[in-house]
Structure formats: C-alpha cells, structure tokens
Amino acid sequence: MPIIYDRDNNIFHLMAGDSSYIIKIFKNKYPVHLYWGKKLNHSHFSEAFITSPFGPNPDPNDKSFTFDRMLLEYPSYGNSDFRHPAFQIEQEDGSRITQLVFNNYRIYKGKPKLEGLPATYVETEDEAETLELELIDELINLKVILFYTAYNDYNVITRSVKFINEGNQKLKILRALSTCVDFDHCNFDLLHLWGSWARERYVERVPLMHGIKIIESSRGESSHQHNPFIALLSKDATEKNGDVYGFSLVYSGNFAANVEVDQFNTTRVTMGINPFEFTWILDKGETFQTPEVVMVYSSQGIGEMSRTYHRLYRKRLVRGVYRDKRRPILVNTWEAVYFNINEEKLLSLAKEAKELGIELFVLDDGWFGRRDDDTSSLGDWYVDRRKLPSGLEGLGNKLKEMGLKFGLWFEPEMVSPDSELYCKHPDWCIQIKGRTLSQCRNQYVLDITRKEVRDEILRMMKEIIKSAPIEYIKWDMNRPLTEVGSLALPPERQKEVFHRYVLALYEMIEELTTEFPYILFEGCSGGGGRFDPGILYYMPQIWTSDNTDAIERLKIQWGTSIVYPASTMGAHVSAVPNHQVGRITPLKTRGYVAMSGVFGYEMDLTKLTPEEKELVKEQIEMYKRVWYIVFEGDLYRLINPFEENSASWMFVTPDKREAFVIYVNILAEPNPPFKKLKLDGLDPNKKYIIEGTDKEYYGDELMNIGINIPPMRDFDSFAFILKEKS
C-alpha cells in the first residue's frame, strides 16, 4: 500500500518504489514536510519544530513555533515565513495575505488526469495511489487541493495543485507553483541543464549558496537556454552513487525552478509556472490547475535518477501507437536541399533513400505558399505548385509507389509579414496595440489564444493532411514570444497570455493527434527549444538540436539524457563538412551517435560515394538490430564528454541479456596512455559474447576490468553488441 495515514500522529506516509515521502499535519492545521528519501518501514516522528528568538508567531495563543523555521509543504506569503512562497493571491481589497489550513484529505487508487494539461498517467489504477490534501482559507472561501501521486514501481512522486474560488469575490492569482519541498539542510550541489540554440542542455553542477538561485524561462517556451528540470545532489553524488532529488516540470511555457537557502541552512525548492509576467483571474466558482512536477529520488546517483525518468516517461508519459514501436528510419530534406525544392530532385533523393533501406521521406520547409526563403509565406498552408506541380498528393503517391512513407514539416504557430494570412488578419498576431513588433527569423507569432485563429490553422492543416498520404508531421516553432499581448483580451487579463498560449497549443495538438492517431508527430523548436515533458505527452519524439555535428551532439545528447530517454531524441546523420560548425567527421561516427536516439539521415544521399552508400546500408541494418535495446534498455553513461576527451555510453536490456556500447574519441593524442573502458549495468554472473566475434567475457570482468581502448584518430569511434552466451 503506497500511501498510509497514521491518524494518531496525523502523518501521511507515501511509499513510491524504494522511497518514502512523509507529511505531517502540524497542530491539525498545517501540512509540514518531514522526510523524502530511502524507503522507511516506520514513520513515528517526534515533533522537532522550534521557535526562533526573532521569529514572529502566527498563532497569538501559541508562541511555540514560527513558520520561518518550519519545513512547509505549500507555504504562503505574509504570516511569519519570509522565504519565497509557493503561491500568492490578491484579493479585491488589495490584500495578498492568505491563511490556508488543513480541512480534509482523500486517498484513492490510480491517478487523476489534469484538465487541459499533459501529465504522467497510469493504465490501471493499481499502478499508483493518490493523496489529496484539501486546504481552505475561510476568510475568502478559497480551497486549494494539493495532489500527490505515488507510483508503486518507480521512485516517483508527482505533484500539482488546484485552486477553487468558492467565495463571492474575484481573486487574482499572482503565483501558483506546482511543488514545494523544504529540506532541513543545504549540503547539496545543484545540477541543471543550460544552453542556447545549437548548444542545448549542457550540464552544469554548482554548490548551493545562501540566497536564491532561479532557473527559468520567460520566452514563452521552455527554451534552449534552460530546461524545466533541476536536481539536488549530495556532495558525494556521482553517476553511480549518492542521493539525488530530481524535479521535472511537465510544461512547455514559462517556468521557474527556485532553490533558496535561508538563515537556518534549510533549502527550499519550488517549481512551476514562472510568476514573472503571470497573473490569473479566478472568478466565483472557477478553478485553476497547475502543471505537474515529477519528483524522483535516487540513492544510487545521477544515473539511477535518469533511468527512473526514462522508464516512466517512455511508458507513462509518451502515448500513442508509436510509444512501443520502432520509428521508421527517415531522411529529412532540409540539409539536402533547404528551400531549393523541386519534384524531380525530391524523387531522385527518394529513389536513393529507398535503395539504401530508408523507410520515411520527410519534406521539410519550402513546400508551401511562395516560400523561396525564410522571409515569406508562413501561415499560407497550401502547396506551391511551381515546385510541386502534381501537389502533395502526387508526390505522396509516387513515394508510396516506391515503398516510402511520406512526412511533412509545418510551423503552425507562426506567420510571415509577407503572407496572405498576415495581410488579411494583422490583428491575429501576439502584439500590444501601438507597439512595434519584433521580428525573429522574419516572422511573427500567431495569437493562438483566440479560437478563430486556432480554428483557421487547424482547418488548413487538416486539408493538407487529408490531401496526401501523410504519416509523419514535424511541428516546428522557430522564435520566442515578444511584445506579449492579445487584442482579444481585456487589460486585466493580459498577464494570462503566456499561459493561455500554452493551453491553446496543447488543445491544438490534442485535436490533431486524436483525429490522426496513425501519424507520427515530432516536436521541434529551432531544434531543442521546446524539448520538455509537456510536448512528449503529445509527440513521442523531439528534434534534439539543429546542430547535427556528431561531436557537438555528444554533449547535447548526454545532457538531454539526464532526464529524457533515447527513444525521444531525434538524431540524424548529416553531411560533412557539417553545416553548423564545419567539422569533418567519419560517417561511421556520425552513425553511431545518431543510433543513440531516433535514427535518421539529413543529407543529399545522391552525393554519397559507393563506399559510403554501403556503409549507410550497414548502419540501417545495425540500427534495426539494436533499436529495441536503445528504446527499451537502461542507459548507463560511462565517459562524460564535458569532463573527458571522449564519450561513451551503453544501453542494457531490462533482462540484462543484451547491450549496445558506443565509444567516441574526440581528439587524438600522440603516444597515448593505456586506457580501458569499464562497462556498467550488466549481470556480473552472465557470460557475454561480442556479437560478430568469438570474444567472451563475464559481466563482472567487463564492469571491473573493462576492455582495452586502442589508440584512435580524431573523431574515431567503435560500437559493439553484447549478447548473453546461451
């Protein structure tokens, strides 16, 4: 039983996998945090809350405590806790003080859906149990429900919050974070994922300091710059050892993750919608639901935290027919032809792709309106018959006759100033009346918070999808939001636009994926600018980065793997010199790096030499052999490219009978020292054979002695498959 209520001590004990999370209702009023960590068999805590010599007492009849020294589950503003609150409500009289107290609770099997929001799920109610803590502010009749779900088979607690206005006045939410965890010490390092376009999700680890550290986005998307994830690490935590507490927000817009160390060396972690430029008006009888935070505890280092997220997100976040299937091996036309599209060239590329064993042909940007470059036609979603005289239907049918699936690129949220749509509806953009609109990539952002805008975009997309045998869609978004306002909303609701935008995006994608369940959708935002759990709920894979250089991808994919499974990472073999950094790397290495994700190609295949074509055929066959190890297996990161002159990782099937190992050298060394690669995650007592050789090893040999790494040239690599010897 994952949730136990000790009525005598007013304690809720949530057991999730091998972890425990414990809450006490202090003085029958206040939810306080007691513990999160390794699973406990007993939870009889003595009260250890003390007052402070200079701390205000919130209860005039009880001077024994102050909120400023307590570990709180969902702290408010203004009554003796001076740390940053989890929420804040403005009332009609201008007051921003609330006093929530415990009123009731519910414990039940299963996990509720979040209305209008993505979230992790269960397929049977026996997989998890949920606790609802009902808190009320009697003065303004505000009800707040804290949701906690404990998964039976994962060290996972999910949290979200619902606000319900049961009073007579209009309330304004100023801050509504999804989780708060107070720790009783600050002996942690903070791990987060930062970056930029073409350098997404670089790993940074820094010690905590007194004060507050904020990881956030205010760009209208989760962003290239910061991912909606943080982790607290014990000082001794490594890839394989130590305590790690992960926080991952299932949301695709502005977010904030705050880590605050106070005067008493306690650490407060809060995460949710970024309060910056956010308010939400809650009229009488209305509710507001926050996004979900997925919290993971690991006592076995960063690696086990990552594998927990991977297992959960693969099976209980991603949905649809492609959740458990191999994705078709694709070729994308972007780096092959860019905007220089014509049917003859596309068909020659498709013919070559088919001969090499590729299964899906994706037509990227440039097929619509008069899109000869990036200065026009976004929003004009009709085929350019100058380039495709037989239309998408004709092209799609010819590809189908070749035995290829057909995929198409869209950027539905954007509009070009030079477009028919903008000329007809300039008011349909995100904008502030009278203010100059910033352009980015020569485009504006459509105001999809307006129903008429969503309806028109969906109408055009559906007509295109139904006009041709389309089985894949790449949904792109190539700029952040600026001058954020909606001409359709009153002044008092303008700070709702960022969140309304995200809700509208989810509504649109849900409608399309429901109507066309057979289509494989891939998310994209200038590469990895919206690589987050919110998008993965609707689309099983996301384009990891516009940077396709294999050496750059070592860091990008390593960092992405801290939270996200390989089965969600779009990864392509591209041409050399690489179009982003100009680097020349071996085709073999480009293939191995791309095989560590959702495998495909993005190059002009007709320019390959005969030898390269044979290698491509071998790569495709190898990927067909290893895909299920990569998709279903556990990832073990072996050599960190942020710290070493090489990178290595491996995937191990859950039964530990097979593994796929990849090693990439970065720069060659003259007269290099002797090196070994120690593997991980194997069964120490199984005997393994390296497929294609007669070499045999026991698992404990491979993990403790390792295998020799030969001297290697710049950007050289090797990979092999381990299989249990029967």
UniProtKB/TrEMBL annotation:
GO biological process: carbohydrate catabolic process
Domain of life according to the entry: Bacteria
Catalytic activity: Hydrolysis of terminal, non-reducing alpha-D-galactose residues in alpha-D-galactosides, including galactose oligosaccharides, galactomannans and galactolipids
Record domain Glycosyl hydrolase family 36 N-terminal: where: 30-282
UniProt keywords, alphabetically: Glycosidase, Hydrolase
First-tier enzyme category under EC: hydrolase
Keyword Ribosomal protein in annotation: no
Residues holding substrate: W197, D364, D365, R441, K474, W475, D476, M477, N478, C524, D546
Active site as annotated: D476 (nucleophile), D546 (proton donor)
MF terms in GO: alpha-galactosidase activity
InterPro entries: Aldolase_TIM, Alpga-gal_N_sf, Alpha-glycosidase_related, GH, Glyco_hydro_27/36_CS, Glyco_hydro_36, Glyco_hydro_36_C, Glyco_hydro_36_N
Domain Glycosyl hydrolase family 36 C-terminal span(s) in chain numbering: 647-722
E.C. number(s) listed in UniProt: 3.2.1.22
PANTHER family documented for this protein: ALPHA-GALACTOSIDASE C-RELATED, GLYCOSIDASE FAMILY 31
Family (UniProt): Belongs to the glycosyl hydrolase.
Protein's UniProt name: Alpha-galactosidase
